[in-house]
Amino acid sequence: MNDKEYNRKKKKILNASRELIRMRGVKGWNMDNIAAVCGMSKKTMYKIIMNKENMITELYAREVMDNLKNIRRIIENENDKRKALERIAEEIPANIGAFVYKYANEMSMEFPNVNKNVNEYLEEERKALINFFAECYGEKIFKEDFPPDFIVDLTKKIIDTYAYKEYSESEFVRKCSLALKAVFFGIVKD
């Protein structure tokens, strides 16, 4: 199987698993269901995905990566760091896909390693945020008591805290955005 065919099949598997999770929840399907929807043998599917946890990890990471691409665009295109901070505080919760928001808790409970594995996928994006916050320090926008990696870790903890509560999606976006603004603007110099 060449790379193009491999990637096409992998995308097909991930899309099918996403739809089955939406229809049946995280526990309401198995690899036989995915293989049937994709029209491929389980053997072929396992060569591409390896196991259900890897598939869930890739699916979850893909959803989160789409959100982080929007954040990266803000970082790269917004010259005013204060405006960028406000937009990031609004965009992170607003762009966390409904899929991730709705199923994050269930996926983590069913597959405990998913969060750790997703974090490995996201290391490059984490570094981009650390660099952005370091630039804020360099431009004397932030108070000096808070290292950039601490701010990124705190941002993730805020998102996780609100994602695992039983809020409506709109309530999650509102509360998470307020919490991120409180952190970001609490460390901005007057």
Q: What general outline do the C-alpha atoms trace?
A: elongated
Count the DSSP helices. Answer: 10
Along the chain, the helix and strand elements come as HHHHHHHHHH
Q: Helical amount among residues, as a percent range?
A: over 70%
Please describe the biggest sheet, giving its number of strands, its sense, and whether it closes into a barrel: none
Provide an overview of this structure.
- The mean pLDDT is 87.
- The relative contact order is 0.11.
- The chain is elongated.
- It is an all-alpha fold and 190 residues long.
- The protein is built from ten helices and no strands.
- Helix 1 crosses helix 4, helix 4 runs antiparallel to helix 6 and helix 5 (81-95) runs antiparallel to helix 10.
Summarize the structure.
The protein is mainly alpha-helical and 190 residues long. The chain has helices spanning 3-24, 31-38, 42-49, 52-77, 81-95, 98-110, 114-121, 123-138, 148-163, 169-186.
SSE layout:
Layout lengths: L2 H22 L6 H8 L3 H8 L2 H26 L3 H15 L2 H13 L3 H8 L1 H16 L9 H16 L5 H18 L4
Sum up the structure in keywords.
190 residues, 79% helix, mainly alpha, 10 helices, 0% strand
